[in-house]
From TrEMBL:
Source organism superkingdom: Bacteria
Pfam families: HATPase_c_3 (PF13589), HSP90 (PF00183)
Protein name per UniProt: Chaperone protein HtpG
Alphabetized UniProt keyword annotations: ATP-binding, Chaperone, Cytoplasm, Nucleotide-binding, Stress response
InterPro entries reported for this sequence: HATPase_C_sf, Heat_shock_protein_90_CS, HSP90_C, Hsp90_fam, Hsp90_N, Ribosomal_Su5_D2-typ_SF
Organism: Halpernia frigidisoli
Entry similarity comment: Belongs to the heat shock protein 90 family.
Record-listed ATP binding positions: 31, 35, 76, 81, 96-97, 169, 340
GO MF entries: ATP binding; ATP hydrolysis activity; ATP-dependent protein folding chaperone; unfolded protein binding
Amino acid sequence: MTKGNINVSVENIFPLIKKFLYSDHEIFLRELISNATDATLKLKHLSNIGEAKSELGNIEIEVKVDKENKKIHLIDHGVGMTSEEVEKYINQVAFSGAEEFLEIYKDTAKDSGIIGHFGLGFYSAFMVAKEVEILTKSFKEDSTAVRWVCDGSPEFTLEDYPEKTTRGTEIILHIADDSTEFLEDYRIEELLTKYNKFMPVPIKFGTKTETLPLPEDAADDAKAETVEVDNIINNPNPAWTKNPSELSDEDYKNFYHELYPTQFEEPLFNIHLNVDYPFNLTGILFFPKLANNLNIEKDKIQLYQNQVYVTDEVKGIVPDFLMLLRGVIDSPDIPLNVSRSYLQADGAVKKISSYITKKVGDKMVSLFNEDRAGYEKKWNDIKIVIEYGMISEDKFYEKSDKFALYPTTDGKYFLWDELIEKIKDSHTDKNGRTVLLYATDADAQDSYIQKAKEKGYEVLLLDSPITPHLIQKLETSKDNISFARVDADHLNKLIEKDEPTISKLNDEDKERLKIEVEKNLENNTYVVQVEDLDSSDAPFLITQPEFMRRMKDMQATGGGGGMFGMGNMPEMYNLVINSNSSLADKILHLEDADKQKTLVQQAFNLAKLSQNLLKGKDLTAFIESSYSNLSS
Ligand SMILES: Nc1ncnc2c1ncn2[C@@H]1O[C@H](COP(=O)(O)OP(=O)(O)OP(=O)(O)O)[C@@H](O)[C@H]1O
């Protein structure tokens, strides 16, 4: 038997490990299973190339909880270790790994931004165990099994252990009194499902009862037989490790539900990621139904490293606009044992992020080209991701003319160039600028939309929360276009043509009309304007100037308008009086002051009502007075 001292430069590393990683004790299981998996895969490889002579046999990894004796056993049938290898890998390599880890995390361990806490390896066992035993037998011919024991102090013992005759390693954790939660089956099963659900080697945890199918000629009251089978907690061949040509739509959907068992909705479509240069990355991203919901916290993209779950905090690796997607990304190249701020500056990570962006763009182009009608149907659910990508990633934006859709209130969908082609004659104003009219709420802005349509204009329906940012971006990058919401002004002003306007009133009357209206609207904050509209247009019209409203909207969804300090300004509205309406005429010529007041207020309220601006007490009073008018 060898007794020895692990070469320690930190006085006693184990209490430190425990302290630093207090909140993350559970990762011990992931670390030990990763080692067991590595050892098994190594053996498989050696066996494939003819280096390992013995039969491969059973390669399952087994986890056993012995609650009574407060032990957890992890058994693998991998390469195992010789006595020299234990000396080298456990006493020296593993230890230096643990030491290095502490060096890195000394100051940052409490920083929740650390991704994954990888790299601690074997010594993480001491986060939960007061003593750790390794029983191991190398695959090499004629090697004797050995037993290594360490109680968490820098001292260890290493001795021959001929009792172990099978190849591989068994780690026995003597669980510490403050970690007995890990002696509960449900807790271990929970951890195995969280971290090891897609590990490449089958992992057995206990057994489960399976019901056998009844034979076809079974009697009606026949009872199905049951058998006890190994409870394998993982799927060693998850969909993302396969070639896309092997997978059907059904397979992708099944994988989606395997990944998110509580998710009942089907994903809209998926994107299979697969790259091996200049970095390695595989994965599948799913587009869920999102509509206008920006805040989806549940069921996020999961990050794996060689099929080991690491985290679902993928900020920095996945571009922000794709954080709303679901799925998995697996890459051995992501530096997992560093803090997030480092991650964001890391070149490999940046490349991964732009690769994913490119892939998503390419997928959109092909989805659109292959099945335009189907793509249009999905637009409402994917637009938020696409539009967010357009405003946040220049590369994505550059490509977006090939797949970004601009729907109209009539349910037609245009690509940018198609849209401009369609509207350029009618929507171009006297200065040669093409004005795109849009609505953000088809119901609330209905009266304005109808007016625009009567004049033969197309009205876009841009109703996602980031619309103001998107149109800002389009206006600055496309030539000679501008956007205006249908209610930003009356149409003659929104798209000014070189046509003379005809007014029934002379300038003096118009000025008088303005004064009469203002006089009858006490405490009114609206700016009154008299304009020469068509006689068939509404007599009173409320408009909300585009610029101010857009800045305020932008600030509401973050950034933009705040720059100009407009976020906190009150809403600004104009009240447009149609000089050519018969009501204008009537107001001007009514002798009775009370009647004139009622008329003006009633018309003003109707205009407010059509903008959804009549609320509370004003609405109640309006309804009451309307009823009394009916009966008078
Ligand atoms: N179950 C096992 N079977 C065979 N060898 C093992 C086993 N567990 C650990 N080892 C050996 O001990 C070494 C150190 O393990 P440790 O987990 O500390 O670090 P690592 O696996 O090299 O890296 P990581 O820090 O990413 O886990 C391994 O590289 C391996 O050679």
